[in-house]
Design goal:
The complex is a heterotrimer of chains A (371), B (393) and C (167). Chain B has 393 residues and is mainly α. Chain B has helices at 15-21, 29-52, 57-62, 65-102, 115-127, 138-158, 173-181, 184-194, 198-229, 234-243, 252-265, 277-280, 291-315, 329-332, 335-356, 362-390. In chain B, helix 5 (115-127) crosses helix 13. Chain B is globular, with a radius of gyration of 24 Å. With 167 residues, chain C is of the alpha/beta class. Helices cover 23% and strands 26% of the residues of chain C. Chain C starts with 12 loop residues before the first helix and ends in a 29-residue tail after the last strand.
């Protein structure tokens, strides 16, 4: 028995919960044969706050800032999603101006979330320059957030029936300047990553997922589009003003970590395009048009569902209301929660050094995973 | 007679006396400095003792030639260590500042353009609690650590800064430096195993894996240099380059290959696989906390300094400058400073690599080592042999 | 996964209704939404149905194999005090159709067939629903607590578990 143990070449390595690659509190237990991974087991739940249960105890208005806290770097989309599900329950469409403002805020949020991801990729492959350059660019997006919403990260901007405030003065000018600058400097970062054969060598050929598996595992968002599924909720199931926007959904068929990386980079350029279009549209809408509807405090009885394209994938909320001013049940479908459950499948047969590179493509955010 | 002047006790030895007294056959600057220090320090002590006990033998003994020689050798080691230590801190500062500029930030800012931050960090690690895990192999844990740092410091002290700044002028100097340099991966493997931690074990295995990929090309490159200069002695190699041509010109392939190997040898980004912090936390150093980590960090910079110094010896003409020469050339400029500036220049290339490149994977470094570095170093050797055979060099 | 030749890649809303009715008859009930102003509902990208517990697994398999519902977006539990409910959201990538299946479970027999053999993505959703509501998914490969500590012996999202403000 002892001899058998001695001769076994495999060992379990627990990566996390306090581990530089995990970007939050979660654990990936991997079984390694030398450096090759033969088995893996993700473990989450360290950050479980009972978010959904907490919501049952709060009025609908109070949930909006709580929804921001689901994910610190994609806060806008989560509060947007909550407002959408509440509007669906109330059976209202928000005013046009609010729709476009939400689109602008959403896309700013998407860009800054992707930049946070790019920074994390930098540290995961061991290059701090990528990290700092990406965070430098992110700061301009956060400044836009401050101008529009008054907050850097947890914006608390959407309201049930519209948005909290209209654009501030000169926001359009600032936004255009920031976007233009961002597009130029993103190319600088791309030169640091795509033109570096070491970086490409680290990313290419690892973490393959097939088109069939990606659907089966429920992986959504850029990770899905990097594996050949041509699907984006913004385009195929449009909400708010996304129906009127013209943009491309980047899809790559390779299915490795590099294609998922490329999809996210391309998405940032597309987000700039969407912001430009939305800004142009906002010009044509009269300045004194309403940006918020007055809505009742209580939401009528029923079950309601809304979904949205979060920077990390498909966000879905299922609301059961009982006619009172707080929800009866609110279920959040977090994209990372499902994506990380497929990590066992993704890391089969790669090396330990590839784990950060593969897991970076999921873009972990534990706030929404554990809720 | 009772109150002798202090000047009676401070012997100011001349150049000839110094050579006669010293264990070296040629003039040695750190020895000279050490003798001067002892002449003042020992003279002061001897004078003070003489004040209390006039005409005692101890005072005379303290300033006699053999005693001065003995203390001077101890002081000389301290001088040599202090210079390489301060230079390592300067390299650390250089890295932080250059890296900061590359990353669009300022780098360290505390005192003397940020230099004092290095001292502050060092002091901080020394203030930390000495955390030692329970389930370790104590003997190997401590010896592994001590030897990794010890060999690094020893190596740094063995590097001659000029033909008058050395400890021992070995005939096989370059070879001994290489041999001691190659010892570290083995010690890292042991230290990684002794910590009883899976990360450090994998880190130690990686160090061994890394070693077989760069050590062999490096030795082939060394053969090129040695063949061309006709000696293992660093003095001879530098003298040969000064006389003929810096080896970087005929061996340009070797120079670039050597830089890649030297980065790998000193285990810096992009080849710091054994301490890859993204996946292995801190690699083989995971369980070495506080002061131990600070010393390992310092040892890393010592090794980086030696790796740069090797590149300078082998390709950049050591402490020589092509324009200045002549009989008493060392009086015209400081060859030590020229050498250290060259080292800093090579280290600058290291820092650029760190700023621009992500970390490679273990299989990639093996690929690079065997498919690129190895053939390149062999080509370099072939060029050297060709030049030697045809009599060009 | 069986690659059926007669898979319908882009089933329209009416197709789904008629095919499911033909296959399962009265066991599956379709609910028409009363909402008027919601774009997704007006454009027919939502379908609400209520299924019996016995046919749930067959229905899921039918939707997955024949009607190309490739992804299980979410599995949610709802505690209605007198009974429990499991809500499935399934997505078709080609038509962007989202099907919501509601299944009632009596309180005294909290068992339902697991769909994680059809969609691997439902795996963790079911585990989560199990640990928070105590609904047992039969045939699930690893029905253990995921988010809450393993030592928990209660199901925190049930209405019987009161928060401080609710007491």
């Amino acid at each position: 028995m002892a001899e058998e143990k001695m001769n076994s070449d495999k060992m379990w390595v627990t990566m996390g919960p306090q581990h530089p690659f995990s970007h939050g509190l979660w654990t990936l237990r991997v079984e390694v044969d030398g450096e090759i991974i033969t088995d893996a087991e993700p473990e989450v739940g360290y950050l479980h706050r009972g978010w959904e249960k907490e919501c049952e105890n709060r009025t609908y208005n109070k949930i909006i800032p709580m929804a921001d806290r689901l994910c610190y770097s994609a806060s806008m989309t989560w509060s947007h999603l909550f407002c959408k599900v509440a509007e669906e329950a109330l059976d209202i469409e928000v005013p046009e101006r609010a729709q476009y403002l939400r689109v602008v805020a959403d896309e700013i949020c998407r860009i800054q979330s992707h930049l946070m991801w790019l920074a994390a990729v930098g540290t995961d492959v061991g290059n701090l320059t990528i990290f700092l350059w990406a965070l430098r660019e992110r700061e301009f997006m956060l400044d836009l957030n401050v101008r529009l919403c008054g907050q850097r990260l947890t914006t608390n901007y959407p309201r049930i029936g519209g948005v909290r405030n209209d654009m501030p003065y000169y926001f359009e000018r600032d936004c255009m300047r920031a976007i233009e600058r961002f597009e130029k400097s993103l190319w600088d970062i791309i030169r640091l990553t795509d033109d570096s054969s070491i970086f490409v060598g680290r990313m290419k050929g690892i973490g393959y997922i097939t088109r069939k598996d990606v659907a089966n595992y429920g992986i959504t968002g850029p990770a899905m589009r990097g594996c050949g599924v041509d699907y984006d909720i913004r385009r195929d199931d449009p909400y708010d003003a996304y129906g009127e926007m013209e943009f491309e959904v980047p899809v790559l068929k390779e299915g490795d970590a590099y294609s998922r990386y490329m999809v996210r980079i391309e998405e940032m350029f597309q987000s700039c395009e969407i912001i430009r279009q939305a800004m142009k549209k906002l010009e044509s809408i009269p300045k004194n048009a309403p940006y918020r509807l007055k809505v009742p405090k209580c939401i009528p009885e029923g079950t309601h569902m809304a979904r949205i394209e979060d920077p990390r994938g498909e966000g879905l909320m299922y609301l059961v209301s009982d006619g009172t001013e707080s929800p009866y049940r609110l279920k959040v479908r977090s994209p990372v929660f499902v994506n990380v459950s497929a990590s066992k499948h993704m890391v089969q047969g790669v090396r330990i050094a590839d784990i950060p590179a593969i897991m970076a493509m999921i873009d972990m955010c534990l706030g929404e995973t554990d809720r | 007679m009772a109150y002798e002047s202090i000047t009676n006790f401070i012997v100011n030895r001349g150049y000839e006396d110094l050579i006669a007294m010293s264990p070296y056959e040629v003039y040695n600057l750190p020895y000279d400095i050490a003798v001067k220090i002892w002449e003042s320090l020992g003279g002061l002590i001897a004078w003070l003792i003489n004040l209390i006990f006039p005409n005692n033998g101890v005072s005379q003994w303290l300033i006699s030639d053999p005693v001065t020689n003995g203390f001077a050798i101890i002081l000389m080691v301290i001088v040599i260590f202090a210079v390489s230590f301060v230079f390592c801190l300067l390299m650390l500062w250089e890295e932080r500042k250059v890296l900061g500029r590359m990353m669009d930030r300022r780098g360290t800012m505390v005192g003397l353009k940020g230099f004092l931050q290095c001292l502050g960090d060092g002091l901080k690690t020394f203030m930390k609690e000495n955390v030692v895990p329970k389930a370790i192999d104590k003997k190997i844990y401590w010896w592994g650590l001590s030897l990794v740092i010890g060999t690094s410091v020893l190596l740094a002290c063995m590097v001659p800064l000029s033909n008058r700044w050395f400890i021992v002028d070995y005939q096989a100097g370059l070879l001994i430096i290489f041999a001691l340099f190659a010892l570290a991966p083995f010690l890292i493997l042991c230290a990684g195993w002794a910590q009883n931690n899976k990360y450090s074990l994998i880190g130690g295995l990686r160090a061994a894996e890394l070693m077989i990929s760069y050590e062999i090309p490096m030795l082939i490159l060394l053969a090129g240099t040695v063949l061309m200069a006709g000696s293992f002695n660093i003095n001879d190699i530098v003298a040969y380059q000064e006389e003929h041509i810096w080896f970087v010109i005929p061996q340009i392939i070797g120079f670039f290959t050597c830089i890649v190997c030297a980065v790998a040898e000193s285990e810096r980004v992009p080849f710091d696989l054994s301490e890859a912090e993204a996946e292995l936390v801190e690699g083989w150093q995971t369980e070495y906390a506080g002061m131990k980590w600070g010393l390992i960090m310092l040892g890393d910079y010592f090794r980086g300094y030696v790796a740069c110094a090797l590149v300078v010896f082998m390709y950049l003409g050591g402490w020589s400058l092509p324009v200045i020469g002549g009989e008493d050339w060392y009086l015209q400029y400081f060859p030590e400073i020229v050498f250290l500036l060259k080292v800093a220049l090579v280290f600058f290339i290291f820092v650029l690599a760190r700023a621009a490149l992500p970390r490679v994977r273990t299989d990639q470094i093996l690929n690079v080592g065997w498919k690129a570095l190895m053939p390149l170093s062999v080509i370099n050797l072939a060029i050297v042999i060709l030049l030697k055979v045809t009599g060009v060099m | 996964m069986s690659e059926d030749a007669n898979i319908i890649e882009k089933p329209s809303r009416d197709d789904i209704v008629s095919l499911v009715k033909a296959e399962f008859g009265g066991k599956v009930e379709f609910i028409e939404s009363t909402k008027k102003n919601i774009k997704a509902i007006n454009e027919g990208r939502r379908l609400f149905m209520k299924a019996d517990r016995e046919v749930l697994h067959d229905l899921a398999k039918y939707l997955h194999d024949k009607l190309n519902f490739e992804q299980a977006s979410s599995v949610a539990g709802v505690d209605w005090v007198d009974h429990m409910q499991v809500v499935y959201h399934l997505t078709n990538y080609c038509t962007s159709m989202v099907v919501e299946i509601t299944v009632d479970i009596p309180n005294d027999d909290l068992h339902i067939a697991s769909v994680s053999d059809i969609w691997e993505g439902a795996n963790w959703h079911e585990r989560e629903t199990y640990e928070l509501f105590g609904i047992v998914f039969d045939g699930h490969p690893k029905l253990e607590r995921l988010l809450t500590p393993k030592s928990y012996e209660f199901f925190p999202f049930r209405k019987s578990y009161k928060l401080r403000g609710q007491e």
